[in-house]
Amino acid sequence: MQHQRASCLAWVVLAVLALSSCDARIIRGLHQTAAGPIPSQQQRKLLQNPDAPALTQYGGLTMENIVPKNGYPLEKHAVDTPDGWRLNMYRIPHGKGQQPGPRPVVLLHHGITLSSACFTLLQPNESMAYVFADAGFDVWMANTRGNTFSRGNYNYSFRDPLYWRHSIDQYALVDAPAQIDLALQVSGAKKLAVVGHSQGSSIMYALLSSKPEYNEKVSVALHMGPVAFIADIAPGVVKDMASVGNDNMFQDMQMPEFLWYRLLAPYVKQCAGATAGAECMSALNNLLFGPSSLIKPEDFELILQTWPASVSTRNLHHWASMFRTAELDFSRYDYGTDCTSTTMFQDSCNQAEYGSLAPPQYELSLITTPTVILKGTVDVLATPADIAEQERRLQMAGSHVATIEYPGFSHMDFIWQRQTQQHITDMIRYAKQYAEGTY
After folding, report:
1. Is 263 among the domain residues?
2. Is there a contact between 223 and 196 (Cβ–Cβ < 8 Å)?
3. Is 72 inside any structural domain?
4. Which listed site, 159, 237, 355, 419, has its alpha carbon 20 to 30 Å from 259?
5. By C-alpha distance, which of 91, 120, 88 is closest to 415?
6. What is the spatial distance between Cα 238 and Cα 20, in angstroms, rounded to a whole number?
7. Residues in contact with 301: Cβ distance below 8 Å, sequence separation at least 6, in sequence order
8. Helix (H), strand (E) at residue 14
């Protein structure tokens, strides 16, 4: 047994390091809407989810598996983007035992390698989506393109490198506007609150700084462990990948997808049990997000039923490029200055894309949406220097409302720990404060 645990842990760690060093229908309480034209037979094939067999084989969970069994209504909404993606959003329109009707709207946006499932995975009094719904909110959850629940693309198969030609820029400037617009259209609200975690906050920073009209659609932005200026991040995989250039290696090897569920599921499934779970949880947290003393080791097996949810290596390259500048850099994707080179993504250069040698910065000082930052005292991804720079730039626009500190919180404690929900209570208080006249 000890050998099996050691072997399982080794496989998990090596797997990570090797990759790094409106029609409607009601089915069992699921309300599904689809926007856009009826897809052709070929397009239907492209819209299929390649992770679905692995989810079934290795005990993975979908939103449809999780939410209704906890007693909450669930709606699935598809939104089509101008560049050919079909993204799935999920909605809990009201709390358990409540009646439908107008109420304030909140959009929850997950972090990197996660999905909407992270907001629903724990018990109803512990999971953010349920707590917000029971507090009187119409809860919407986004999924970034390419993750387990947003795999549909009208133009490319997931095996095509161009399917993975996306990073923060597309999530912020194409996907997030479409998701916000759909939530407002369906709910009938004038504005919504946004809650972001990690890269989910980065996406909202990029959107609100680039498209000023969306500051009029967001009542308040609530950011948990927000990441933007990453010069002093600490976790091994993220930092080492950027330092040694593994993100470039991925592109040279034409490996466009990273941490896909169907690859890791056979190995992490072996990490069942309290002891093996503790070892795996500790290893993965330290490698990817930093250590946690609050996440229960026995929850590892549950977490692995929805995580990881895939990420494009181009997105990792985007973050790694910003890290390598060693400056306070939160910018659009860096294509480089060699206009004669080609990559698997058929890229050109910054001059062709932006008309400048360097990519444009996302200027947080242009954000006018009231913004609340939630930070953990032992968060090694959203570092004190990063948070301080975010505060400084938001204060230039007068949009920084407050920063709340949570002692002992690490990066993933905002999502995966069960010991306290004070951070959720705090966000609900601010969301209600700014909700008047929004619905």
Report:
1. yes
2. yes
3. yes
4. 419
5. 120
6. 8
7. 271, 272, 273, 277
8. helix 2-20
Instruction: Give the type of residue at 80.
Output: D
Q: Which residues are within 8 A (CB) of 436 and not within 5 positions of it... i.e. 6 or more apart?
A: none
* Helix extents (H) in 58-198: 63-66, 128-134, 168-170, 176-187
Q: Please tell me whether residue 77 adopts helix, strand or coil conformation.
A: strand
Picking from 89, 232, 250, the residue whose alpha carbon sits closest to that of residue 167 is 250
Do the Cβ atoms of 3 and 222 come closer than 8 Å? no
- Does residue 397 sit in helix, strand or coil? helix
Q: Are the C-beta atoms of residues 287 and 279 closer than 8 Å to each other?
A: no
Residue 438 in domain:
no
How does DSSP assign 282-330, residue by residue? Answer: HHHIIIII---SSS-GGGHHHHTTT----EEHHHHHHHHHHHHTTSS--
Question: Helix-strand-coil percent breakdown of the chain, rounded to 5?
Answer: 45, 15, 40
Q: Is-contact 331 168, C-beta < 8 A?
A: no
Does pLDDT of 288 surpass 70? yes
Burial of residue 425 (number of CB atoms within 10 Å: 0-12, 13-18, 19+): exposed
- Domain count for the chain, please give it: 1
**Structural domain containing residue 400:** 2-330+362-433
Nearest partner of 140 among 101, 191, 63, 194, judged by Cα: 194
Supply 324's token pair.
């390598």
pLDDT tens figures, 165-174: 999 999 999 9
How many whole angstroms from its chain centre is CA 225?
A: 12
CB distance 271 to 277 below 8 Å: yes
∠ CA 390-394-396, rounded to 5°: 125
Number of Cβ within a 10 Å radius of residue 100: 9
- CATH number, domain of 228, equals 3.40.50.1820
Q: Which residues contact 43 (CB under 8 A, 6 or more apart)?
A: 154
Whether residue 336 is contained in a domain is answered as: no
Q: What distance in Å separates the CA atoms of residue 207 and residue 170, rounded to the nearest whole number? A: 10
Confidence category of residue 11, pLDDT binned at 50, 70, 90: very low
